[in-house]
């Protein structure tokens, strides 16, 4: 025999409340319902957090100790509430009830905190299987009030136990599961609006979904003053049960919300539901003049700081540039000295003319031109030869470049050999008559002017960059 669950779940915000703080989960192994409390947003948060802590139990194969699994999941959910309250003190006071069933074949583990309820229909007998953790129920069990008085007691919503982030001991029990059992799990939005006798009659509707719909309809007809959430689950002996989980209420997307068409309850909802309030037009906030002035002052101060930094950078750059010198090619291809560095920025030269190739203060008769230099020196000057100061630049021209020019201008001397005069058979001449001068050698007549390269001048030592 294989026992599985066939289930349905429905939730509705009721006819008075503007939001739904109940959260519900129904799956093949887990049925759980949490009724949030503590304000509009806080109740929703608490119920969702606890349901989220229990939901993983539906994915795991139940072990032998069902109650240990339920206890741990509840503790995790309660700890999550405590952490949220610690992060946001405005959430202090929020909490939730919880009634959940973990199904494992022939056994059912039940955990309960608060005044949500679980009922069992077995063999035609309908009974409540959880105990309300409420002040009114304490009075009722002690015989101090009657059931009729409990139904209208002004403190009937006062809970003695709830999951609020503080330490709490939930009620844990294990029950036998039998084929044909039907379970009803509901929030007090149903049990507070509909009598046990009416519930016992409605729970006999065979289809679980139709039964859940009928339960909510009865709660709305009874006044619908609270959120109402219902789970109907049948234990059946079949090979395969349902496996698609239902997540509803505050934890869901609204797809489980109950709709009744043109039923009396729907018409009652239309009459009692608060009219939607128009969304107020959002006005841009007026800025404080003092804040505006402070912001303007900060902006101006920031601008001044930026300008000071830029000015300091410009001064430092100018100082660095003006402390540099280099030898380069100037107007008319003359070798000159520049102050600064080669190049330009945004069309502005980073250098200025300082001196020509001749020392200042004297008559320059021998300008040094770039084309007159040897190739290596010519290339270096065209690229700019950097020097640390003006004296080094002048020394580089006079002691290094000028010798290169002299070597470039010198012409190799052509060696000549004197040809002795031919022997003459004429008689000797008288010593008083001077002999004629021998004719000039053609090679000597054609020798160009210039220094003899066979005896090169000593070049003064110099250096490149």
TrEMBL record:
Residues 6-235 form the PPM-type phosphatase domain. InterPro entries: PP2C, PPM-type-like_dom_sf, PPM-type_phosphatase-like_dom. Pfam families: PP2C (PF00481). It catalyses: O-phospho-L-seryl-[protein] + H2O = L-seryl-[protein] + phosphate; O-phospho-L-threonyl-[protein] + H2O = L-threonyl-[protein] + phosphate. Its EC number is 3.1.3.16. It comes from Amycolatopsis orientalis (Nocardia orientalis). This is Serine/threonine protein phosphatase PstP. Residues 249-291, 410-465 are annotated as: Disordered. The keyword Transmembrane applies. One of its GO terms (molecular function) is metal ion binding.
């Amino acid at each position: 025999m294989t026992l599985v669950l066939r289930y349905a779940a429905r939730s509705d915000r009721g006819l008075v409340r503007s939001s739904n703080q109940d959260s519900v989960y129904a799956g093949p192994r887990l049925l759980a319902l949490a009724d949030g409390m503590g304000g509009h947003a806080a109740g929703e948060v608490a119920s969702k957090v606890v349901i989220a802590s229990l939901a993983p139990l539906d994915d795991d194969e139940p072990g032998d100790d069902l109650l240990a699994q339920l206890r741990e999941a509840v503790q995790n959910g309660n700890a999550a509430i405590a952490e949220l309250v610690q992060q946001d003190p405005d959430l202090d006071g929020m909490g939730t009830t919880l009634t959940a069933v973990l199904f494992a074949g022939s056994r059912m583990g039940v955990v309960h905190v608060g005044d949500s309820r679980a009922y069992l229909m077995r063999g035609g007998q309908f009974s409540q299987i959880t105990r309300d953790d409420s002040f009114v129920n304490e009075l009722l069990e002690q015989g101090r009030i009657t059931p009729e008085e409990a139904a209208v007691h002004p403190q009937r919503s006062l809970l003695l136990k709830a999951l609020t982030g503080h330490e709490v001991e939930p009620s844990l029990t294990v029950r036998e599961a039998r084929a044909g059992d039907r379970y009803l799990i509901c929030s007090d939005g149903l049990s507070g609006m509909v009598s046990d006798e009416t519930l016992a009659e409605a729970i006999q509707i065979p289809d679980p979904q139709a039964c859940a719909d009928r339960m909510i309809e009865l709660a709305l007809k009874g006044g619908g003053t609270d959120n109402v959430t219902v789970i109907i689950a049948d234990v059946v002996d079949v090979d395969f049960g349902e496996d698609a989980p239902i997540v509803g209420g505050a934890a869901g997307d609204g797809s489980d919300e109950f709709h009744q068409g043109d039923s009396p309850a729907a018409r009652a909802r239309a009459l009692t539901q608060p009219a939607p309030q128009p969304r107020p037009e959002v006005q841009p906030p007026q800025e404080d003049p003092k804040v505006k002035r402070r912001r303007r002052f900060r902006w101006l101060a920031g601008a001044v700081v930026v300008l000071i930094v830029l000015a300091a950078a410009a001064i430092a750059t100018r100082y660095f540039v003006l402390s540099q010198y280099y030898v380069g090619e100037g107007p008319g291809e003359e070798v000159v000295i520049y102050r600064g560095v080669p190049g330009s920025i945004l069309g502005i030269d980073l250098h200025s003319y300082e001196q020509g190739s001749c020392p200042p203060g004297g008559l320059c008769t021998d300008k040094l031109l770039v084309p007159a230099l040897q190739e290596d020196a010519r290339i270096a000057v065209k690229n700019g030869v950097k020097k640390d100061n003006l004296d080094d630049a002048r020394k580089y021209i006079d002691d290094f470049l000028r010798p290169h020019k002299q070597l470039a201008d010198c012409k190799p001397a052509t060696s000549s050999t004197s040809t002795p005069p031919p022997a003459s058979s004429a008689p000797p001449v008288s010593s008083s008559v001077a002999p004629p001068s021998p004719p000039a050698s053609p090679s000597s007549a054609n020798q160009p002017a210039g220094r003899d390269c066979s005896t090169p001048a000593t070049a003064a030592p110099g250096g490149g960059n």
